[in-house]
């Protein structure tokens, strides 16, 4: 097994809160560091905090749980190139692997079996110039694209992106509200009026554990 080292912010077992896998038990491996600074970021603690783990240690650590669904997240996991090797080792060990990425890093070196949940950052995030459009070539029907909507401008901008790049033909497109900036009901009404082929999603973990910032 690879001895490559990654800087890890936290590893925990919880319920998947987002994506098509929402509601399922899942192991989360949160890598330290992010290249972006989104206005609504709720994981600022992951920018610098963490400790080094070898891939072998990670695999040993997560074997304490029966769950076979794992999400590699951050921060931005793909700024540590060792995350590619980690995903390969997880697959070899029989895990179903999700990776949550902010869309700014090249995803083509990830194994095709890894399910990519990729953000396209809206103007409201302050990071809408960060998206690597080459990544659209590497998505499959199993992957997901996520827009976090903060206001009507973000909604209109995201709608244009979906139409221009036919994103809903590539894979499932998810719309979620930025916490506290937009009401769920308003976003749902906009989705219904627009007839966009997108899926509204909640952050389930924040409803189940509203007072826990970490490890959920
Ligand atoms: S990409 Fe994610 S972790 Fe990085 S700043 Fe944006 S919301 Fe925070």
Describe this structure in words.
This protein has 216 residues and is an alpha/beta fold. The chain has one domain: TIM Barrel (Alpha-Beta Barrel). It has 6 helices and 9 strands; from the N terminus they run βββαβαβββααβαβα. The chain starts with a strand and ends in an 8-residue tail after the last helix. The mean pLDDT is 95. Bound molecules: iron/sulfur cluster.
Features:
binds iron/sulfur cluster; globular; TIM Barrel; 9-stranded mixed beta sheet; 25% helix; 216 residues; 6 helices; alpha/beta
Ligand inventory: iron/sulfur cluster
**Mean pLDDT score, rounded?**
95
Give the CATH topology: TIM Barrel
Work out the radius of gyration: 17 Å
The poorly predicted ranges are: none
First CA to last CA: what distance? Answer: 29 Å
- State the share of residues found in helices, binned by percent: 10-25%
Strand order of the largest sheet: 3-1-2-4-5-6-7-8-9
**How is the main sheet built?**
9 strands, mixed
The amount of beta strand, in percent, is 15-25%
What would CATH call the architecture?
Answer: Alpha-Beta Barrel
- State the domain count: 1
By CATH reckoning, the class would read Alpha Beta
Succession of helices and strands: EEEHEHEEEHHEHEH
Structural shape: globular
* CATH superfamily descriptor: Aldolase class I
Number of helices: 6
Structural class, from helix and strand content?
Answer: alpha/beta
Note the quaternary state here.
Answer: single chain
Count of β-strands: 9
